[in-house]
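sry for the spam today, last one i promise. struct tokens for design, 135 residues
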């Protein structure tokens, strides 16, 4: 989300279509990996191979995040218990917690006197930096 915010603030003068394309291209590799993971679920045999590899190569046992892959292999398996506990009271409570917790940040953002154009990098500087690094 931070990368999307940076892209939005740096390209505020561009069209919505261009900004959306930049955000999509920024997250495209993550989306591709996510699709590959969803389409290739881990079987119990593959999970046992992974746990044994962890023990043999790194001396680590399979903790909860690793064992979660063996028990809850689909998205619906992971979200079903959460959705069962979801109610209007829970949504309201956590919305108020976030609102109160981030209220100081919201006030700072609203009342800022900071000039965002003054602190942003010039495109020539970035182009020169990219050329120095890669060429």
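last one done:
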């Amino acid at each position: 989300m931070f990368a999307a915010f940076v892209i939005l603030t740096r390209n505020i003068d561009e069209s919505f279509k261009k900004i959306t394309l930049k955000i999509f291209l920024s997250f495209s590799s993550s989306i591709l990996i996510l699709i590959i993971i969803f389409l290739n679920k881990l079987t119990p045999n593959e999970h046992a191979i992974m746990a044994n590899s962890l023990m043999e190569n790194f001396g680590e046992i399979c903790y909860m995040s690793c064992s979660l892959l063996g028990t809850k292999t689909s998205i619906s398996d992971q979200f079903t218990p959460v959705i069962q506990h979801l109610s209007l009271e829970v949504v309201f409570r956590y919305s108020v917690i976030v609102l109160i917790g981030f209220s100081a940040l919201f006030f700072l953002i609203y009342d800022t006197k900071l000039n965002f154009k003054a602190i942003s990098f010039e495109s020539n500087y970035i182009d020169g930096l990219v050329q120095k690094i890669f060429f």
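The radius of gyration is 22 Å. ok im logging off now
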